[in-house]
Amino acid sequence: MYNVLIVDDEKMIRDGIKAAMPWSNINISQVYTAVSAEKALEVIRSEEIHILLTDINMPGLSGLEMIDEIKKTDSDIDIIVFTGYDNFEYAQQALRMKVEDFFLKPVNEDTLAQSIFKLTKIRDNRLTEQKHQRLLRRKIGVEEQLKLEITMGKLIHGFASEREYQSFMGEYQYPTDTSMQVVVLIPVLYTNISDDDKSYRLLSIKNICLGMFDSKGTGITFIDKNDRIVLVLFQDKESEEILEKVEKLNSILVDEYKFHPKIVMGSLVTGFRNLNTSYNDAMFLIESKLPGETRILQERNSVKRLDLFNRILEEQKNTMVTNTANIPILMEAFDSFEEACEAYNLATGFVRKCCFEIASAIYFGYAVDSGHKTEKLLEHLLLSIADADRDEAFSFTRTFINDLINSREESSHELIEAAKQYIGSNLDKDLSVSIIAEEMFLSENYFSRLFKKVCGTGCNKYITEKRIEKAKALLETTNLQSGMIAALVGYRDCNYFSLAFKKHTGESPTSYRNGKRQI
Questions:
Q1: Could you tell me which of 396, 414, 392 has the C-alpha nearest to residue 358?
Q2: Which of 297, 316, 361, 424 is the most buried (most CB within 10 A)?
C-alpha cells in the first residue's frame, strides 16, 4: 500500500478528490492534503509520499516550480498534474519534467483512479524485481553478504541503531510483521581437525543453508562471532513450519557429514525489532545444558503440529512401501494419509510434495522388490500434480499407484539419473540438494536419502566431486586463471574453491597445474 499527497489551493477540490476516490481499492493506505506548494514540500520532507496529485496554478510557488524542486532531490515520487487552463505550454512543460499523467479540470474520478492504480502496480512490479535482484546478488555477492552479516549481528544482540534498522528494512523490503525464529547450529564437528578443514566445513554447511533458505527468500544465513552458523527463518501460512525446515536441514547434514548436529531454536517472534529476544532464548537453551541426547533443542511450548503430521506421513508411507503386493492395505494407508492432510489443514503445495514423495517411495520400493521397471509414470504424475489442487493431487496419486502396481515397464532409477544429468549440465550454476530436489518435485530430506541410497554417496559430495573433476580438466587443458575456473565450476568464493580443491586432491589448483605441466 502507498501514500498520496493532494495539493490544490481550492479546498473544495482537495476535499472532493479525497472523499470521492476508492483509495483502498487502488492500493492507497494514507492520503495527505496541502493548501500550497510550500506546505506540500513540508509534508514530503516529513512523510513518505509515493504519488503526488497537484494543481499547476497556485499562489506563491507554482505547481511546476514545486515539481522542479522535487526532481532536484532525486525523489522517488510519481507525479500527476491537473489544471483548469487548457494551455499547451503547461502540458509541454509538465511532460518535459517527466510527470506520469496530465489532466484538465474537472478531473474524471474513474480516469484518475485508473491512473493512480496503474502507478501502484508499476511500483509493485518494481519492488518485486528489486527484491528478486537483491536475492540473486546475495547468492554471489560477498561484500553484500558481509554487510548483511554485520547488520544481522547487531540485530540479534539488540545493538542496531534506529537508523541502521530503518536502512535495513528499506533496502530488503521485509514486512514489519514477519514471523521469524532464530536457529543456531552448534559447531560440535569442528573439534580435532585442522584449521583448513574447519573453514572448509563451515563454508560447506553455510552454502547448504544458503541454498535451502536464502536463495528462496525464506531465511537469512550468517556466522556469528563464535563461528556458529545462525539462521533467521521466516514463517508464513503457505510454507512449511520452521521446525520442519530445521528437521530437513538436520537430515541433510547427517547424510552429508555423518554426524548429528546440535541445533538450537529460539522463540517465534514478530519483526526484526524482536529478533534479539529469539536469539537470547536460544542462548538460554544452550547455556542451560539440558540433559539427554536431544539434537534439536527448542522451548517446551513450541508448536508440534507438523512434527506430529510427519510421524503419520512416515508411518503410512512405510506401510504403503512394504505392502506393494497388498493393494487393500496399501490404499487403506493412503486413505489415512489423505485424512491426515485434511485434519492438519496443510497447504496445497505441501500436499502436492507429500503425494509425490509417497509415489516416489512406492515406485522405488516396488521396483527393487519386484524387479519390474517403469519409465514414464513418475514424469506423468509430476506433470499432472504440478498445478493440481488438493483433491486432484490425491486422485492423480491414486491413479499412479494403481498403474505402477499393475505395470511391467522399465527403469527404477530415472529420478536419480535425471538429477545426475541436471548436475552435469549445471556445474557452473548454484547447485544444492534443495535446488535439485525442487527440480525433481521432492522434499529435500527425502531426495537426499534417495540419492545416497542409489548412488552410495551424498548429493552435495557428488556435486563437489564433479566440480573438482571439471576443474582438474580445465587446469590441465587451459591457461584460465583459478578465479575464472572457480566460476566455471560453480564456486563464487575463490578461497572456498581452493580449500575444496586441496581437500579433494591434496594440493592447491596452482600446484596441481604446475605438476601436470611438468609431466
A1: 396
A2: 316
Range of the domain at 59: 2-128
Cα first-last separation, the chain:
67
Answer whether residue 414 is part of any domain: no
The three three-digit cell numbers of residue 175, written as one number? 514486512
Convert the pLDDT of each residue in 281-340 to its tens digit. Answer: 888 888 775 544 457 777 654 445 667 788 889 999 999 888 776 778 889 999 999 998
**Contact present, 227 and 190 (Cβ < 8 Å):** yes
With b meaning 16 or more CB within 10 Å and e meaning fewer, what string describes 198-212?
eebbbbbbbbbbbbb
Of the residues 251, 281, 298, which one is the last residue of a structural domain? 298
Is 364 in contact with 326 (CB distance < 8 Å)? no
In this structure, is residue 403 part of a structural domain?
Answer: no
CATH number at residue 218: 3.30.70.270
Is residue 263 located within the same domain as residue 145?
yes
At 392, which helix (H) or strand (E)?
Answer: helix 390-405
- To the question of pTM greater than 0.70 for the whole model, the response is no
Count CB atoms within 10 A of the CB of residue 97: 14
Claim to verify: residue 238 and residue 311 sit in the same structural domain: no
Are 330 and 292 within one domain?
no
In a domain, 133, yes or no: no
CA distance 88 to 198: 71
What DSSP letter does each residue of 410-431 carry, written as one string? --S-HHHHHHHHHHHH-TTS--
For range 214-239, the mean pLDDT: 84
C-alpha cell at 65: 516550480
The answer to whether the CB of 249 falls within 8 A of the CB of 256 is no
Q: Classify residue 490 as left (phi > 0), alpha (psi -120 to 50) or beta.
A: left
| CATH number of domain containing 484 | 1.10.10.60
Domain count across the chain: 4
**C-alpha cell belonging to residue 165:** 534498522
* Grid cell digits, residue 392: 486432484
Indicate if 205 and 101 belong to the same structural domain.
no
**Residue 135 located in a structural domain:** no
Q: Are residues 207 and 290 in the same domain?
A: yes
- Of 259, 263, 312, 317, the residue nearest 450 (C-alpha): 317
Strands 179-186 and 78-83: what pairing?
A: unpaired
Q: Which amino acid appears at position 404 of this protein?
A: L
Residue among 78, 91, 83 nearest 118 (CA): 78
Asked which of 341, 362, 396 is the last residue of a domain, the reply is: 396
**Under 8 Å between Cβ of 13 and 82:** no
Residues 133-166 have pLDDT tens digits of: 666 655 556 667 778 888 998 999 888 888 889 9
Place of cell 512394504: 322
Three-state SS for 128-182 is: HHHHHHHHHHHHHCHHHHHHHHHHHHHHHCCCCCHHHHHHHHHHHCCCCCCEEEE
Task: Look at residue 376 and give its three-state secondary structure.
Answer: coil
